[in-house]
Amino acid sequence: MANQSAVGLPDRAVPMKVIVCGVHRTGSMSMRSALWRLGFHDCYHMHTVLSNLDDEPEQWIRAFEAKYAGKGTFSKADWDKLLGHSQACCDMPTAPFSVELAEMYPDAKVVILNRDPEAWYASVSNSIHCAVGPLELLRDQYCYLLDPLMRNWVRFYTTMVKLVLGYNHKTEKDKALAWFAAQYAHFRLHIAPHRRIEYSITDGWAPLCKHLDVPVPMQTNAKGQLEQVPFPRINDGTHFRANRQLYMSKSIKRANSNLFALAGRAALTGALGYAAYLACKTWLGPRPV
Fold first, then answer.
1. Rounded distance, CA 172 to CA 200, Å?
2. Which DSSP helix (H) or strand (E) runs through 75?
3. What is the Cα–Cα distance from 63 to 12, expressed in whole angstroms?
4. 140 in a structural domain
5. How many domains does the chain have?
6. To 10 degrees, the CA torsion angle through 242, 243, 246, 251?
7. What is the distance between the alpha carbons of residues 118 and 209, in angstroms, rounded to a whole number?
8. Are 79 and 59 in contact (CB under 8 A)?
9. 270 domain-assigned
10. Residue 269 falls within a domain, yes or no?
């Protein structure tokens, strides 16, 4: 029976069907799109966190601290609440918990999403850790100061880097590659071979669909002929930067709105104070000499 929430509704609304063991910049966004096309809705991804910054960062911080710092617990009921609307998961922050998730959801099929380690390191360096200029740093500080959701994101991200990654990607390449290798060794050691497939995005539809027991998606071309749907190829460096700009634009709008609200409240407070001063002066009359 599904875990029940406080109002009597199941926290897990849909079954977990696919667990993708693939860290950031391994083709996870393309995989998410492919799984959606195959009917697995939704696939939990870092973009899911970015779309739910009001409450999900705090839940992930609890999960990080429970596993990596021995602080508190994060139970299956907690996972059902966090991932309950997802039939699949991939990318960070779920990837480091893939073994635990595979144990909790034994009917889910597992995909180990591979990428060449050196190519992975270069991709992360050129996207997540690409250099930013002084104006971008100033923008980030402005958003952090005035946008509570940005502060939620920063706390989530810094906790993940500290507890889960534990290295400086820019200056500690050897540690980064060692972490990458250790993640995949952990997946393969603890998840039974019959449940998983070794896969990379360049493999296309056939092996993935066979493992998940779903048909290869087809479409009719301009000539009326049936052909395979092109496998999605998204979130390269250009897409990544565009997405980051989109999220930052949303944060700037929230920050501006909060700034105007603060300015309005300050002006209102000043006006009320001055009105009170004038009222007191009128009612009480001039002070005696």
1. 26
2. none
3. 17
4. yes
5. 1
6. -130
7. 28
8. no
9. no
10. no
User: How far does Cα 65 stand from its chain's mean position?
Assistant: 17
CA nearest 257: which of 148, 136, 124? 148
Give the model confidence (pLDDT) of 179-188 as tens digits.
999 999 999 9
Look up residue 278 and give its DSSP letter: H
**273 in any annotated domain:** no
Structure tokens that stand for 221 in this block:
């071309």
| Helix runs in the chain, H state only | 28-37, 46-50, 56-68, 76-83, 98-104, 117-125, 134-146, 148-160, 173-190, 205-212, 237-284
The residue range of the domain holding 153 is 18-262
Residue type for position 126: N
| CATH, residue 113 | 3.40.50.300
pLDDT in tens, 145-154: 999 999 999 9
Please, are residues 40 and 17 in contact by the beta-carbon 8 Å criterion?
yes
Q: Tell which residue, 59, 82, 97, has the closest CA to residue 3.
A: 82
CA pair distance 165, 187, nearest whole angstrom: 16
pTM of this structure: 0.85
Q: For residue 54, say if its preceding peptide bond is cis, omega within 30 degrees of 0.
A: no
Rounded CA-CA distance 44/105 in Å is 15
Phi first, then psi, for residue 27 (nearest 5°) are 100, 20
Of 278 and 250, more confident: 250
